[in-house]
Design brief:
Layout: E1 12-13, E2 19-21, E3 24-26, E4 32-34, E5 36-40, E6 55-56, H1 86-94, E7 98-104, H2 119-122, E8 127-133, H3 138-145, E9 151-154, E10 159-161, H4 168-179, H5 184-191, E11 200-203, E12 216-226, E13 235-242, E14 245-251, E15 254-263, E16 268-271, E17 278-282, E18 290-294, H6 298-312, E19 318-320, E20 341-343, E21 368-370, E22 391-393, E23 414-416, E24 437-439, E25 460-462, E26 470-472, H7 473-478, E27 484-486, E28 494-496, E29 508-510, E30 518-521, E31 529-531, E32 539-543, E33 549-551, E34 561-563, E35 571-573, H8 584-588, E36 594-596, H9 607-610, E37 617-619, E38 639-641, H10 654-657, E39 663-665, E40 689-691, E41 713-715, H11 726-729, E42 737-739, E43 760-762, E44 782-784, E45 805-807, H12 818-823, E46 829-833, E47 850-857, E48 866-871, E49 880-886, H13 892-909, H14 915-929, H15 933-936, E50 938-947, E51 958-964, E52 968-973, E53 976-979, H16 990-998, E54 1019-1020, E55 1033-1038, E56 1043-1049, H17 1051-1056, H18 1059-1067, H19 1072-1085, E57 1092-1099, E58 1146-1150, H20 1155-1163, E59 1190-1191, E60 1238-1241, ...
Helix pairs in contact: 4-5, 13-14, 13-20, 18-19
């Protein structure tokens, strides 16, 4: 179908013409529904249509999310694009089984070219919209369209012709349900989304895109003439030299319409002398065709002549036609009689037709045939007639049986039948005498087939992923030639050896990822390699005659028995077991080169082991070693890892006895010094990498490093260095990476400039005040001097072009001039503290309830593939959102998720309040918004959302965590780690492993799906569906006062740093940013070489934290202006305010828009709009303990506008005394302007408390006297301040005060302008309140409990006359009298809680609390009401 060139004019198109066709389609209910076909050109297909036919033009091609895209750069990131008018939407509303199918024409290029004259036109799609039902078949749609068939494309990959009986809309619905959507209406809405075309798309004709097939050698637009006669005219056509063919387009300047394919192998390429720069291309065979191509320049002519001559001279022996969406073999291939290897993998080959599988026997010399991933369903028997075959691959075709004709292939040597549904093999298979390798992995075999006994030549058997639970060693003994057996992922529980017969031929055995508890393979006397990782082994017995390699990690082994001593053993992995000592035979083995015993319980290493003359690599980290034996002789040791032990010292002779030592890691020990490099001044050390992080080393150790002159990497972070001697540093001339973070350094020696090869300097979290002289180093790339005391930077005249990252955040006194910033303009990632407009508002810039810090380090990778989303003030309420996205090897997907996921979450919160629903939909929508980038690339994602339920305004905050992949979240509760996420790794999740196996995915030996990723759930990588899904794990955890902080990290972080160590690390560092940096630094010092990212969120959520949002100050539409100057507030000295990168205090300057900057722009939803005028003040409402108060209405003037208004205020009977100079909550008593609700009286400061989320009293008129209220003793039966609902009464427990409010009164409050924001839509900007009101009482109260004394920690002590003591015997009488005096709030009383199940913390009587007058909440005066609160424990 040709594209109309006149449709490419931009602008508004009037008179949009839509062709409407109707056809009767009977739906599932038996009634007749209409199939509405809308044909849209490139100008109206994507626009929002109206009845007048006018609309704005929107491109209908695939929307590509650009890298480093700004948050507001595309409305498509936030708003769902629709292609429907009102009538079409009415069609969808009628039934959830109705929907829309978008049919693309053959003019669409699935992946638009990046440049060229057709780049803009190809984006305009020939599109038709078909409104149909789930029962509408392809045959019915084709009848409406008058086309031959429809084609399906998944994930921008292959195209498959649909069967006439298939239902396209039902296929879309099934696809959406498979990836995680559950709500039928949401499925219907998603199916109509244009972005879905990147995942599933329908074509009305098969599009041709030779460039996408990645076989194009040359391409261009030239003058072409067909045939040798003059009957054909010259015409401009697109010409491609693709593979072994010349392809000529039939349409001018476009790859559309019919494509003429001319096979060149065996043909001719000749020069046409009568015409300048002209070549004649001729094919071979009896029906040879000829094309003349005239080139514009001599260079083009020579290039095409040279390439085409190579193709013509080739003899076809190997043809690769994989991933071509072929249904038949090209006809010209059958003329190549010398074809020996044919690869048809990943196509849709059919049996019938001229080029079908039935004609494959025409290849008389064919030896290798690959038909894997062709959806055959049955074994093609015609293949059994190709008697010359030696290799046949029929994997992943859904076959259930193998025909008996397989016995005809007597020359067959390799047969691959993996990924099918086979459970038995025919007896005729046993007659294949030359068969040496048989692949039966990921089928349904319950045991090893008996027919294999007859295969005398088979030496390799792959049966991973079947259902074999018992392995009989006697069966292996009967297979006389079998050497290599793969039985991974079978659920093996027993390995039995009934007879004493030895298994002599088996040399390699793979039993990984099974359920074995014991394993005795002593009868396999020729065993050379054994893999038994990730079982449940407690005992392992092997024969050591020929054993060379042993992998037995991640078991429960306490010892390993091998007899005789394995003198051929070279490599052994016993990590992650329960070993308390090494067996003696380990030291007796003479050829052990690599020994891994990390993560065990070893308390010592044998002296003979370290003195071994063969050992080159020893990994003994994460044990309990307290000392190492002395080295008695020179040893060939090259790698020694002893991190995470209890070493107090190293052997004195370590460095001059182990002269080959190149890598030493002794991080996380208790070292106070290191041994000298040599016994004399001349050192022969070859040490290149030295990791000393996390010890007790001082500056005296630096002198001992001079002898290691080959040192390239030095990590001495988190020690006790006060300085680094300048003369010693100058000797390390080959140093490339230096990490001195977390010490007490005041300066970096100027001699660092002598390290000419230095490319990385990390020295954060010190006391450095002078910027080191490193910016003129020729190879410097990364400098991290954050969290120091820098004041200025002395720069050279010019900076080296290699510097791409400079981190100067956390230097509060650093001032940079414009000249300095101009010199930094070329740096890719520049991180600086953005100074606020007013210095007095530092402590107001971030939330008091939580603040965060994050760190991203690229490690030894060239690019950073980890992105962070951090928003302290999320949306319009007191909420927060944090995320970590890890792309492993790609940076595009993490950046896109960083840009879009915050906005997607905000949008999903408008549609649902159920945590599992809005979090799942956030991930699924983000998966869709990745577009073409998500087809082949993917990323792990973790999103944490701090919120409180809108229906429970008195409840505490909750934390909802959702994740896919390997990013993890850990909450510190009572000093202990609480993992909140689930790792979707095949090695760590049995459920995911079973699901992937059930879907017949091929899991490679490194436990990766199709060899791509070890994660079973990712955002992106849609081409791996249904094996890899985007549906997340969702968990909601209520937060309490015992929750200290939250840690988010990627896979690389938690692979090196355990949960407990991460928690202890953050506890020792009060600054979240410094804590995040320390976590990443530790991971790198522990051996991490990949990207590592960490986010630390410090939580200050106590029992006195108000979880209700403040109401709007005004419901009108007055103009908004700049806020007045905020009042100064001083942060507590023990808890300095940390600038928040996402709240505007810290930012990054990135020439390419760095990941952190994008995250700040994408995540932050704050705006600069604030209520204008000093008279508009929102009501302050919060619940503070320990004072248990009930609210009473204030006078009419309490809510006035126009100046300071009187406040009717009931003071606390007991008030703490504050200092006249500085109060405990950080407020200066000398502030010029008073705060609303805060009364300063000499040396006393009192706070007005208004508990709006507990008990509402609706009344008017002057406030009643406190003595008019009768208050009973109160006691809380609900710890942790949880909210409960019973009938229509909301019961809230806040620090011992049980309060109730009727549901009818809540509905009245919702209608009140002053309180509607408590229940309705939240503020539109990112702040909780306007900046002029940032002295929030809840923020003041949260700082006070950090002090050891003061008002907020003192128990409420009422005066004796305020107390009401009721004896138990008179309780009923008193209640009846009180009930007769004043009406009670409607609703049943709170439920009774037995004392036995009551929280012991609250199991004591509380004195009554005084009454505070409540402000007028009702617009009209109503009769005064009295409320009584009873103690449910009475």
């Amino acid at each position: 179908m040709q594209m109309k060139e006149e449709d490419n004019i931009p602008g508004t198109v009037n008179g949009t013409v839509m062709e409407r066709k109707k056809g009767g389609v009977e739906d599932s209910r038996g009634c007749c529904t209409n199939t509405l076909v809308y044909e849209a050109g490139s100008n109206q297909a994507a626009g929002r249509g109206d009845r007048n036919g006018t609309g704005n033009r929107v491109g209908t091609g695939i929307r590509v999310l650009k890298r480093n895209m700004k948050r507001n750069g595309s409305r498509g990131c936030v708003t769902r694009k629709t292609r429907f008018g009102s009538r079409e939407r009415d069609w969808l509303k009628g039934d959830a089984q109705r929907g829309c199918v978008c049919l693309y024409g053959g003019t669409v290029d699935p992946q638009p070219p990046a440049s060229g004259p057709q780049a803009s036109s190809t984006l305009q799609a020939d599109l038709r919209l078909v409104l149909c039902s789930t029962t509408t078949t392809v045959e019915e749609l084709c009848a409406q369209r008058e086309v031959e068939g429809l084609y399906l494309q998944l994930h921008g990959d292959l195209l498959r012709r649909l069967d006439p009986s298939e239902c396209p809309l039902q296929m879309v619905y099934d696809y959406l349900a498979a990836i995680g959507y559950q709500d039928p209406l949401r499925v219907q809405r998603e199916a109509a989304n244009s972005d879905l075309s990147c995942m599933i798309r329908f074509y009305s004709e098969c599009p041709v895109n030779a460039d996408q097939q990645e076989r194009t050698l040359l391409t261009g637009v030239f003058s072409v003439r067909k045939g040798k006669t003059q009957l054909h005219k010259w015409a401009e056509r697109q010409v491609l030299l693709c593979g072994t063919c010349l392809i000529v387009a039939s349409v001018k300047d476009s790859l559309t319409g019919k494509m003429h394919i001319l096979p060149l192998v065996g043909g001719k390429v000749e020069e046409v002398k009568r015409r300048q720069h002209c070549l004649m291309f001729s094919s071979a065979g009896p029906q040879a065709q000829t094309y003349f191509v005239n080139f514009d320049t001599l260079a083009d002519y020579q290039r095409w002549h040279r390439q085409a001559s190579k193709v013509v001279s080739q003899t076809i022996s190997l043809v690769d036609l994989s991933c071509y969406s072929l249904e038949e073999v090209p006809e010209y291939l059958f003329y190549s009689q010398d074809l020996t290897h044919l690869n048809l993998r990943h196509n849709f080959m059919s049996l019938q037709g001229p080029g079908g599988l039935l004609n494959l026997p025409r290849f008389s010399q064919l030896k290798s045939l690959n038909l894997s991933h062709n959806r055959l369903g049955v074994f093609p028997e015609s293949v059994c007639e190709i008697l010359t075959l030696t290799e046949l691959n029929l994997s992943c075709n859904g076959m259930n049986t193998v025909p008996a004709q397989i016995g005809n292939l007597q020359s067959l040597q390799t047969l691959s039948l993996d990924g099918n549904q086979l459970n038995f093999l025919p007896e005729e298979l046993g007659g294949l005498a030359q068969l040496s390798s048989l692949g039966l992995s990921f089928n349904n075999f319950p045991h090893i087939p008996g027919v294999l006994d007859r295969l005398s030549g088979m030496d390799k058997l792959a049966m991973a992923g079947n259902r074999v639970e018992t392995l009989e060693l006697g069966i292996l003994a009967r297979m006389s030639h079998l050497k290599n057996i793969d039985l991974r992922l079978n659920g093996l529980r027993w390995v039995k050896s009934e007879a004493l017969e030895a298994v002599k031929q088996v040399t390699q055995l793979d039993l990984r990822d099974n359920h074995l508890a014991t394993l005795d393979l002593s009868s396999i006397c020729s065993l050379e390699t054994l893999h038994c990782q990730r079982n449940q082994l407690r005992a392992l017995t092997l024969s050591g005659f020929t054993l060379r390699t042993l992998h037995a990690s991640s078991n429960r082994l306490t010892t390993v028995n091998i007899y005789p001593v394995p003198n051929q053993l070279t490599q052994m992995d016993l990590s992650r077991n329960l070993l308390e000592y090494l067996p003696d035979w380990v030291c007796d083995s003479r050829k052990v080169e690599v020994l891994d015993v990390t993560h065990n319980f070893l308390s010592e290493l044998p002296a003979r082991l370290l003195s071994s003359l063969s050992l080159r690599k020893l990994l003994a980290g994460n044990n309990r070693l307290q000392r190492l034996p002395d080295l008695l002789d020179h040893v060939p040791l090259e790698v020694l890892d002893l991190q995470h032990n209890k070493l107090g010292e190293l052997p004195e002779s370590l460095f001059y006895k182990a002269l080959n030592l190149k890598y030493l890691n002794v991080s996380a020990n208790a070292l106070e010094t290191i041994p000298p490099s040599s016994q004399s001044e001349e050192s022969l050390s070859t040490l290149q990498e030295l990791y000393l992080t996390g010890n007790k080393l001082n500056e005296n150790c630096a002198a001992l490093l001079v002898g290691h002159q080959n040192l390239r990497v030095l990590h001495m972070a988190y020690n006790q260095l006060l300085s680094f001697p300048a003369s010693k540093l100058s000797k390390l001339e080959l140093l490339e990476e230096l990490n001195l973070s977390g010490n007490k350094l005041k300066t970096i020696p100027s001699t660092v400039s002598s390290c000419k090869r230095l490319h990385t300097l990390i020295a954060h979290s010190n006391h450095i005040s002078v910027f080191p002289e490193i910016l003129n180093l020729p190879e410097i790339k990364l400098v991290d001097l954050s969290c120091n005391e820098l004041t200025e930077i002395l720069l050279p005249d010019s900076l080296t072009a290699t510097l791409h990252e400079l981190d100067l955040t956390g230097n509060c006194s650093l001032l940079l001039e414009h000249k300095t910033l101009n010199l930094f303009s070329h740096i890719t990632t520049l991180k600086l503290d953005q100074k606020p407009a007013m210095a007095t508002g530092d402590s107001l810039g971030s939330s008091t309830l939580w603040n965060h810090g994050y760190s991203e380090m690229s490690g030894q990778r060239n690019k950073l593939c980890v992105s962070v989303l951090a928003v302290d003030r999320f949306g319009d309420s007191v909420e927060a959102a944090y995320g970590v996205f890890d792309g492993d090897r790609n940076e595009e997907v993490p950046r896109l998720l960083q840009c879009t996921m915050g906005d997607v979450l905000s949008e999903e919160l408008l549609h649902s309040s159920v945590d599992s629903v809005y979090m799942s939909n956030t991930f699924l929508t983000s998966h869709r918004k990745l577009g073409m980038a998500g087809q082949k690339l993917g990323a792990s994602a973790l999103l944490c959302y701090i919120h409180h339920e809108p229906s429970e305004l008195g409840s505490y905050f909750s934390l909802t965590v959702a994740n896919v992949g390997s990013c993890q979240a850990v909450l510190c509760r009572d000093g202990q780690p609480l993992p909140l996420s689930k790792v979707f790794s095949l090695e760590q999740s049995t459920e995911e492993m079973d699901r992937v196996k059930l879907s017949k995915a091929i899991i490679t030996e490194d436990n990766k799906v199709s060899g791509v990723t070890c994660c079973s759930r990712l955002l992106g990588c849609s081409y791996l569906s249904p094996w890899v899904l985007p549906k997340p794990w969702v968990r909601t955890e209520p937060l309490c006062s015992q929750d200290e902080f939250l840690i988010l990290g990627n896979r690389a972080l938690f692979e090196r740093v355990s949960y407990q160590e991460a928690v202890c690390t953050v506890q020792a560092v009060r600054d979240p940013r410094a804590a995040a940096k320390k976590l990443c630094t530790l991971a790198q010092s522990y051996g991490c070489r990949d990207n590592v990212g960490a986010v630390v969120v410090s939580l200050h959520i106590g029992e006195d934290s108000c979880t209700c949002e403040p109401p709007h100050a005004s419901t009108g539409t007055e103009p908004r202006g700049p806020p007045p100057t905020p009042l100064p507030v001083t942060a507590p000295p023990g808890d300095p305010a940390t600038p928040s990168s996402s709240s505007g205090i810290a930012s990054e300057f990135n020439s390419e828009t760095s990941a952190s900057e994008v995250g700040s722009e994408a995540g932050s939803t704050a705006s600069d709009e604030h209520p204008s005028g000093p008279t508009v003040r929102p009501e302050r409402r919060c619940s503070l303990h320990p004072a248990a108060t009930l609210c009473a209405p204030a006078g009419p003037g309490s809510a006035g506008v126009g100046g300071p208004h009187p406040v009717l205020f009931q003071r606390q009977p007991s008030c703490a005394t504050f200092s006249s100079n500085q109060s405990d909550n950080g407020l200066d008593s000398d502030d010029e302007a008073p705060l609303e609700g805060v009364i300063s009286n000499g040396s006393k400061l009192e706070v007005e408390v208004d508990i709006h989320c507990c008990a509402f009293q609706i009344r008017s008129g002057p406030a009643a006297s406190p003595k008019d209220y009768n208050l009973d003793k109160t006691r809380s039966d609900y710890p942790n301040g949880k909210m409960r609902r019973q009938n229509s009464v909301v019961v809230s427990a806040t620090n011992g005060c049980l309060l109730a409010v009727c549901g009818r009164e809540i509905s009245d409050l919702k209608k009140s302008p002053s309180t509607s924001s408590l229940f309705g839509k939240k503020l539109s900007n990112g702040s909780v309140v306007a900046p002029e009101d940032s002295h929030n009482l809840i923020e003041v109260a949260l700082e006070a409990p950090k002090k050891k004394s003061g008002y907020f920690t003192a128990p409420a002590q009422q005066d004796p006359e305020d107390q009401l003591v009721v004896p138990p015997s008179l309780e009923q009488d008193v209640r009846e009298q009180l009930r007769g005096q004043s009406p009670m709030v409607p609703g049943p009383p709170p439920p009774f809680t037995p004392p036995s199940i009551r929280d012991p913390v609250w199991d004591h009587p509380h004195p009554p609390a005084p009454m505070l007058p409540q402000r007028d909440l009702a617009p009209n005066p109503i009769p005064a009401l009295q409320q009584e609160v009873y103690d449910t424990a009475l």
